[in-house]
């Protein structure tokens, strides 16, 4: 596990604890004020933003540009800041909330795409992620349009169809990924005569590099503890 992922998990845990404590205090003491709602909304926004950042971080590959992950993190940052400012300042400007909601839609969509990009599918199903990406960003675009204007009933129907197809294709990719992982062997046992492609080998190398990075971080931390411990 990367250091950034560890910190994000800690932030997520604290958001859950703080949100639960605020909710308990509001219900127990009966002070159902806007301040309590602001506290709950703030921790919910931070928790969702942390989950989205974890998804983007999970898709990051060492020694690569990782443009998609970087774009996702930037969108998450701007949308989170916009939501927090709006929650605490109670900005009544329609355009401000439309822009913030649009950024949030595409931030969540990019996080979703980052998670789908991790999947390792069989060669004959490699076309499926492209359809999933189109559905994800299509749904995000329609939700962003909904933040700016009212849509016709027919467009709401299209949005519902996109949401159903999006969920179905995403679950199919997850299922195919799990089935493929059961068949995947380590690099030492790869049979080059069995139709293994260079893409499969590159993915195995990426997984091993991630594992090596984690072991290097663990080694440095163990050495630091050993050096601080007196004989």
- Give the helices and strands as they follow along the chain: HHHHHHH
**Overall 3D shape:** flat
Output the structural class: mainly alpha
Residues in β-strands, percent: under 5%
Span from first to last CA? 30 Å
| DSSP helix fraction | over 70%
Mean pLDDT: 79
Poorly predicted spans: 186-194
Number of helices: 7
What is the number of E strands? 0
Instruction: Please describe the biggest sheet, giving its number of strands, its sense, and whether it closes into a barrel.
Output: none
The gyration radius over C-alpha positions equals: 22 Å
Give structural attributes.
single chain, 7 helices, 231 residues, flat, mainly alpha, 0% strand
Short description:
The chain is mainly α. The protein is 78% helix and 0% strand.
Task: Outline the fold blueprint.
Elements: H1 3-29, H2 34-58, H3 67-89, H4 94-117, H5 128-146, H6 153-183, H7 198-228
